[in-house]
Amino acid sequence: MPWRDVFQIAFRSVGQARLRFTLTCLGVLIAIATLVAMVSFGAGLREQTVDNLEVREVFTSFQILGSGRAQTLRDYREEESSETNQTERPSLNESLVKRVSQLAGVVSVQEDIRFPARLERNGKSYLTRIRGAGPHVAPLSPYSKITQGRFLTGTQGREIVLTVRVARRLGFDPPETSLGQTIDVLTDRLRRVESEDELPFETVRIPFDVVGVLPRLLVTQRNPFYRGVVIPLDEARPLWKQSLSGRSALTAVISQEQGRGREFDSVDVRVKDLVSLENVRKEVESWGLTTFAIADEMKRIQEAFMILEVILSVLGTIALVVASLGIANVLVMSVLERRKVIGIMKAIGGTDADVRRIFLVEASLAGLLGGLLGLLAGWGLTRIASVFIVRYFARNGILEVPELFAYPVWLLAGAVAFAVLFSLLSGVLPANRAARVDPVEALRQG
């Protein structure tokens, strides 16, 4: 029997049992829609983390760690310290920053300058940590997202960039009304004492003008330069050097006694390309320093997302298995109802292979149609979920929400192929049962 006749008979059989075929396709549709929604969520998370990192500055940047953070990293990785003599280790101070900035391939070097401070304005106050930065980070996300005001234009000047949350805590509602306003930055710093009755610290109050407001974002795009409230680097440096910030204040005293100068907790280094990244890191590590880059942890991140995608795929596959059982049940019933038709077909020359192909084509039609409709239903389901997600975050003041669902080609093609494959597998047993029908017995019973 030619394939054209096989398809004609299969389509005719489907048309004669529209309701049964529709319900069968509906089961496949639900299963594929569930599978697509779950896997697209996992693919979206991967795209927003692993894949997007490759086109951002994160893969062309690394950190030089101070002694404290270096030890924390070694403890996390369960590594032994390679520093046999801590006094020989270079101090992570301003002179070292200048040395690193002179290396070939280095685009910028940003020391991690952060210190605790209290912001005050008209009787309202807010405790935060202030970051020193320069205009070279303005093109980077999230600072490039500023829509109200602007970012810092230099490393000097009494300018400050707030976040939406901080602006509201200081009484600015809407937050953009803070632009051009002056707020006071209060921080404690070390000072010399001339008598036993004096305290070794004092509180300083410095006015700053608000020049920009950073909108609230769902994520900070994993940018190591982001720290929220920002003031110019040269204004932050002297405050940081004398600030009382826990361990850093103690290390400052020790470093000054050793003539090393105050040591940074870390230094962020950006290079022009991946080749420069490797060369600069090797050079810095040869000085006895510890470095860290996101690329070091990429294997673990990829493994974590692979596990997540497998789990989501398994959950979706369970629904497809249930739908396949429904297809098998429908075809078995069809065999019982069409025994006489099968007997007549065999009596006029039809072979077992012809009968088997007819039932397998019927099963594959249910899988193909259900798979295609399932793609549309899955896409619609994720669009509805996205609307609710955006509305939820909008109510919480988050203006930018990344796309959490992705639809790669392998998912779209694989979902339909998966549906057809499972449908064919579910139709094997009924097709074989139909092929074994004895035409003489079928005609006698008919």
Write the layout of secondary structure elements.
Elements: H1 3-16, H2 18-53, E1 61-65, H3 67-77, H4 94-101, E2 106-111, E3 114-121, E4 124-133, E5 148-149, E6 159-163, H5 164-169, E7 182-190, E8 201-214, E9 230-232, H6 233-241, H7 247-257, E10 266-271, H8 274-286, E11 290-292, H9 298-337, H10 339-347, H11 352-395, H12 409-435, H13 439-445
Parallel strand pairs: 4-9, 6-8
Antiparallel strand pairs: 1-10, 1-11, 2-10, 3-4, 3-7, 5-8, 7-8
Helix pairs in contact: 1-11, 2-9, 2-11, 2-12, 9-12, 10-13, 11-12
Nearest-angstrom radius of gyration? 34 Å
Q: Major beta sheet, specifics?
A: 7 strands, mixed
Question: By helix and strand content, what is the structural category?
Answer: alpha+beta
**What gap, in angstroms, lies between the N and C termini?**
24 Å
Quickly count the domains.
2
Range of strand content:
15-25%
* Helix fraction by DSSP (H/I, runs of at least 4): 40-55%
Shape: elongated
The helix-strand sequence is HHEHHEEEEEHEEEHHEHEHHHHH
Say how many strands there are. Answer: 11
Low-pLDDT residue intervals, each spanning 5 or more residues: 83-87, 219-227, 253-259
Q: Count of helices?
A: 13
